[in-house]
Amino acid sequence: MSVTTAPAGRGALQPVAGPRLYHPTVARLTYRALLGRRRALLLFLLPLLLLVIVSAVRGLAHADDSTANDVLQGFALSAMVPLVGVIAGTGAIGPEIDDGAIVYLLAKPIRRGTIIFTKLLVAIGVTMAFSAIPTLLAGYILNGNGQNIAVAFTVGAAVASVAYAAIFLLLGVLTRHAVVVGLVYALVWEGVVGNVVPGARTLSVQQWALAVAQKVAHGDLVSSDVSLTTGVVLLAAVTVAATWFAGRRLRSLKLAGEE
Amino acid sequence: MTTISIDNVSRWFGNVVAVNDVTMTIGPGVTGLLGPNGAGKSTLINMMAGFLAPSNGSVTLDGAVIWRNEQAYREIGIVPERESMYDFLTAREFVVANAELHGLPDPAAAAQRALATVEMEYAQDRRIETYSKGMRQRAKMASALVHEPSVLLLDEPFNGMDPRQRLHLMDLLRRMGAEGRTVLFSSHILEEVEQLAHHIEVVVAGRHAASGDFRKIRRLMTDRPHRYIVRSSDDRQLASALIAHASTAAIELDLREDALRIQAVDFAGFTEFLPRIARDHGIRLFTVSPSDESLESVFSYLVTA
């Protein structure tokens, strides 16, 4: 994060700070918008559903390490994390662009990159809070972190949260139908294609996150189709590219044409 | 002294030309941007606000291009036409947030001053979602004024306001103009512009139709050829009497409509002469109706004047 002194303006009130990478006011507006809207209910519902499922599995059947792996990969990592990512990532900017309130951010001497980066941090934080933490709890409920599976999937969910937040934030800037596109991506690509089509697995955030989880887990229950290096590089590359492109698109965002 | 210059600017959306080769300069004081709906006013304001790139030409603030120039917002305050704000905030929170986004040294004090300027202190701790249209407009004004900009751009600011709120906003804008700020507001209502702005820019169908002192343009509008449809007890006799008078340029006897179509060149002279000549000739007037009084036709005349 860099803070520099702003160049002198000519207005009566001079600003005290200029360009920086993170803006606390943008962050405050973003998380209040995210957690204040009705869509935020979904943020609570998905982790709750996970906890209900794992409690039921734990109560009704013998939950061994294999079961824990199946549930955490099959529901938490492949469905809950991307869906929470869709809600947080698109919700961090999409509604503001749709209703025009983004004008109050854009009509300020703040770099577009700062707005995007700040919103990304909020989206990552919200996605992690509503996916990684419930994953940890679910893992402990299922097998008490046997073979370090709970921690492994928590780390996997955390790194996936970063990439999903960046991808869906970009979608929020690119299209007014970001939620629909995001859901199709999350459910069809990550949920189905990424699980069953061998070639597609290497292009799935889920598999990249699994590669990280595999490294953290003990034993060989957790496995990924990609190597750790490939997974980490692709996670980083997608996150950086999506964030850069979102900033670029926001810089060219046109708020007009209603006449 | 801050000036916005629009030089040979065009803007098109696909095949639709919204703004066509417009050149104008907006300087200190209050300027009204007048034109019918769909004339290109919002497109022009959006380009001046840096929210839209011109397809051709340039829009500059004291020589600096505005598009993709975030630093321009240190000088510009914007009151958009769209209603949406951060409705979950109170007006105070909203204006403080705007002050923080501008990086002001004391956001709370700046917000308090701005809210006092628009007389919104009494409702500043209520959520914006509970506000009436006029209150929202004032909250938007406060957010635009919080950094004391030298340029204020307002897109149809009087839409939906009641008369009292309208007068209050007009007073405020007059004050801003008198302080030497460059204030530009758009409107499609002639009377609004007349009450507030001495200088107006008229746009019609994306073209710059007129520019200058409001009274001159108003006179031009008043003195334009007016068209009337007149029905009377003796159309032919009335026509012969009218054509002899200098205020009448042309008369057509429309047999199908059973009426006279009259083109008058001297508005005041014609409106005084018509009833007098009818009375003198014992002719009863059944219909006297202007046929081209729509704002669009008035503006269209300005394009060709």
Automatic annotation (TrEMBL), chain A:
GO molecular function, one term: ABC-type transporter activity
UniProt keyword terms in alphabetical order: Membrane, Transmembrane, Transmembrane helix
Transmembrane regions listed in the UniProt entry: 40-61, 73-94, 115-142, 148-171, 178-197, 226-246
GO cellular component: plasma membrane
Chain segments annotated as coiled-coil in the UniProt record: none
Highest taxon above the source species: Bacteria
PANTHER family for the chain: INTEGRAL MEMBRANE PROTEIN-RELATED, MEMBRANE PROTEIN
Protein name as catalogued: Integral membrane protein
Organism in which the protein naturally occurs: Actinacidiphila cocklensis
Automatic annotation (TrEMBL), chain B:
GO molecular function terms listed in the Swiss-Prot or TrEMBL record: ATP binding; ATP hydrolysis activity
SMART domains: AAA
SUPFAM superfamilies xref list: P-loop containing nucleoside triphosphate hydrolases
Alphabetized UniProt keyword annotations: ATP-binding, Nucleotide-binding, Transport
Lineage: superkingdom: Bacteria
Keyword Lipid biosynthesis applies: no
Keyword check for ATP-binding: yes
Domain ABC transporter: 4-230
Family of the protein in this entry: Belongs to the ABC transporter superfamily.
Entry protein name: ABC-2 type transport system ATP-binding protein
Organism: Actinacidiphila cocklensis
Lineage: Bacteria, Bacillati, Actinomycetota, Actinomycetes, Kitasatosporales
